[in-house]
Amino acid sequence: AVANNTPLYLSEISPAHRRGRYTSLSNVMEDLGFALIAWVSFAFSYVAGQTSWRLIFACQYVGSVILMYGVYVLPSSPRWLALKDRGEDSLKVLANLHGASPGWESKKEGFASLTGLQLSDESDPLVRFEAAQIHDTVQEEYALASKSSWLELLRPGPNLRRFALALVLPGIQQFTGINAITYCESMPRALSWVVN
Prior knowledge:
Layout: H1 6-13, H2 19-44, H3 51-73, H4 78-83, H5 87-97, H6 108-115, H7 125-147, H8 158-175, H9 178-184, H10 187-190, H11 192-195
Helix pairs in contact: 1-2, 2-3, 5-7
């Protein structure tokens, strides 16, 4: 569940001008991870005995441990904080994400020239604008939520079409057989110890 929410989290914490790049990078890294584990599985298929599948199984824990550690280290989503009526905390998170602590002020120009990032604080107009934008969006969603229901997804119109696409497209993707190719390509070799 955490990995599936990564693109959403990235879109919430990223600066607007880099949001698409970071979200796309998340998808690219996921695909590279699939390719890497396929090659690792192929390499371990030549290991004799039960060690082969145990090593493949153990490799999955590396990314999971890093991801679980990140859940506790990464800041809360500014949007989630705003939804929980914690606007000041949301503003602090935005300032930290788009800048740094006051101790960085002396290094601001050097940091900006090295990374291309601009440091900011809670009084920065961009941080204030983004916090106000999040607050306004949350208020608008609360107002709309009182007027709508989940049944609107099933009534004829554009929402029904979107809902149907959201359900049908992942199903069609699964019917291509990609999971059989991805997960089972090296299974005969990895499980050859059963036959032998």
